[in-house]
Specification:
By secondary structure, the chain is mostly beta strands. It is about 10% helix and about 40% strand. About 20% of the residues are buried. It binds calcium ion (CA) (4 copies).
């Protein structure tokens, strides 16, 4: 490159930059417009005739990465859209989306700079990272307790981005919204005491809404799983059980089953049965209870003559931490069996019996040590 060429080159560059700094033309176009949409008339804005555009082989510099989106009709001077323009793809979350172009005219050689502002359109709805979100809340959570929710996103910018959240109406939770610089956080706030035994799961819908006109929205299904606490004690089907058992029933004879239920779940509702308050007493030693089934069976001698009625107290206790328990009574009536040889006691009524005594004259009274009494008659 000789000195003249060198200086000529730099003069062109200087003039181009000077022209650019003074005369950069700014256009704006909405994203997603149809191909062929006219943005402006470049001949008019550059103050050259359309005919001159053609003769000077005016063109968008094809080397630029944004060149494919635009073209110029050199017969009319129209600058038009030549490809799909997606603001979200080109500029992401940047508030301003400007595409720079260079255009060249020959004879004389002139470089023009164009800036095209891509205007956001509300073509994206807010969305959540998942479609369903599970929140675990213990049933003894306090009113005012807070549970943060996933953050919604909206690929648009400015007023077309996320603007508000909305919670489906329900009696347990309200919504509290915190607005940050780049995102909005929503929290569930407990408004009313939970009770797993009444409602084990609460289904809510969180809606995220953008500020577009018209607005777009996205939803999140929220499942509040109410976690059990051992707040119920077992309850026996009956407070009092009555049963008859024959004395001398063999060991292992099943006499009755007691049963209790517990409204909680898991170990908080698993019940163990036991005799209450009289370990190693006569009652306990004569009976046994299955800790799982509540079945009571004979395990010792049942003797009517010793006890005609036996009272047992049975406890049902859950396995919660701490456990809860309750108790019931079992009244056992022992049924007499004829197991004693009668002891005969005779009492003479007459010292001697006359030979002419009439038939039917009582001579002796005989009593049995069992429950029967009798007399002997002639
Ligand atoms: Ca958009
Ligand atoms: Ca949007
Ligand atoms: Ca329980
Ligand atoms: Ca419970």
């Amino acid at each position: 490159m000789d000195v003249t060429t060198y200086y000529s080159f730099w003069i062109v560059v200087f003039l181009s930059l000077w022209e650019s700094s003074l005369g950069q033309i700014v256009y704006s176009v909405s994203e997603e417009v149809n191909k062929g949409t006219v943005i402006g008339n470049i001949a008019k804005d550059l103050k050259i005739s359309a005919q001159e555009l053609e003769t000077r082989m005016f063109q968008i510099m094809p080397a630029g990465s944004n060149a494919k989106y635009f073209d110029v009709n050199v017969k009319t001077g129209s600058l038009f859209v030549n490809d799909r323009i997606d603001r979200e793809e080109l500029c992401g979350s940047n508030q301003k989306c400007a595409l720079n172009l260079e255009a060249l005219a020959q004879n004389p050689h002139r470089l023009y700079r164009l800036e095209i502002i891509v205007v956001d359109v509300n073509d994206n709805a807010p969305f959540f990272p998942e479609s369903t979100y599970v929140v675990n809340v213990t049933e003894i959570a306090n009113e005012g307790d807070r549970f943060p929710l996933p953050i919604a996103k909206d690929s648009d910018v400015g007023s077309n981005s996320l603007k508000d959240y909305n919670l489906s109406s329900n009696e347990y939770f309200s919504l509290d919204i915190h607005s940050g610089q780049k995102s909005m956080l929503a929290e569930l706030v407990l408004q009313k005491a939970l009770d797993r035994e009444k409602q084990a799961a609460i289904h809510l819908i969180l809606t995220a809404i953008d500020g577009g006109k018209p607005p777009k929205s996205g939803t999140l299904s929220i499942v509040v799983d109410v976690i059990d606490v051992n707040d119920n004690k077992p309850i026996f089907r009956k407070p009092l059980y009555k049963v008859k058992v024959k004395e001398n029933s063999p060991i292992g004879t099943k006499i009755i089953s007691v049963s209790a239920s517990d409204l909680d779940e898991g170990i908080n509702s698993e019940i163990q049965y036991s005799f209450l308050g009289h370990e190693n007493t006569d009652e306990t030693n004569r009976f046994t209870i299955n800790s799982k089934s509540g079945e009571i069976a004979v395990q010792g001698q049942i003797d009517y003559e010793e006890d005609s009625a036996i009272e047992l107290r049975v406890q049902a206790r859950d396995k919660g931490v701490p456990p809860k328990s309750t108790h019931c009574k079992v009244l056992i009536e022992v049924v007499d069996e004829n197991d004693n040889v009668p002891e005969i006691v005779t009492t003479p009524l007459l010292e001697s019996v006359k030979e002419d005594a009439k038939p039917g004259t009582a001579v002796n009274s005989v009593s049995f040590q069992q429950h029967c009494y009798n007399s002997t008659y002639l």
